[in-house]
Amino acid sequence: MRKVKEQQMKFGEVDIATVEFDLRSRDEIPKLLMGLRHIYCTPELREEVFKILEGIVAKDVNNKNCRPGMELWKILVLGTLRLNFNWDYDKLQEIANNHMTLREMLGHGYFDRNSRYALQTLHKVNTNVSKIKKKKVKNYGSSTI
C-alpha cells in the first residue's frame, strides 16, 4: 500500500494548503496546481480521488526492501501535469526539478532544493503515471473530476 503523502513534514517544507500562487499569472501551470491543491485540501474529494488512484497505479510495492514507491500525491501531480500539457518525460523532469511552486506542491522544502528527479525515476513513475489515462479517469464519474 502506497502512502498518499508523508504526514510528517520535513524541515523547511511548505504545507500544501499554504502554497502561494501568482494569481496574475496567465500560465496554465499555476491554474492546474490550484485545482490540485483544492483536491488535497477538501477531505471528501481527496479521499475519493486517492481511492480511484489506488485502483489505477501498480500495487507491486515491496515494503520488505524499504522501497515503498512514490507517494500517490506525487504520482497524481506529475501525472496530471504530463497528461494535461501533453509533456514528454524530459519536459516533466525539467519542470519538476526547476519550477519552484511545483516543487513546493510535491513536498520539497527550502533545504531540499538540491533534490532532483532523475529521468529514470520519472520513467519508473511511467509505470504508474501511464496508467492514469484520460479515458480511465473519465470512467470514474464526473463528480470526481
Protein traits:
145 residues; mainly alpha; 52% helix
What share of residues are in beta strands? under 5%
Helix content, binned percent: 40-55%
Poorly predicted sequence stretches spanning 5 or more consecutive residues: 139-145
Rg over CA atoms: 15 Å
Which structural class fits the helix and strand makeup?
mainly alpha
> Can you count the helices?
7
Q: What is the chain-wise order of helices and strands?
A: HHHHHHH
The average pLDDT is 77
Total domain units: 1
- Distance from first to last alpha carbon: 24 Å
What general outline do the C-alpha atoms trace?
globular
- Major beta sheet summary: none
Number of strands: 0
In short:
The protein is mainly alpha-helical. It has one domain. Helix content is 52%, strand content 0%.
How would you describe what is shown here?
With 145 residues, the chain is mainly alpha-helical. It has one domain (27-139). Helix content is 52%, strand content 0%. It has seven helices and no strands. The longest helix is centred in the N-terminal third of the chain and has 14 residues, at 28-41. Mean pLDDT is 77; it is low at 139-145.
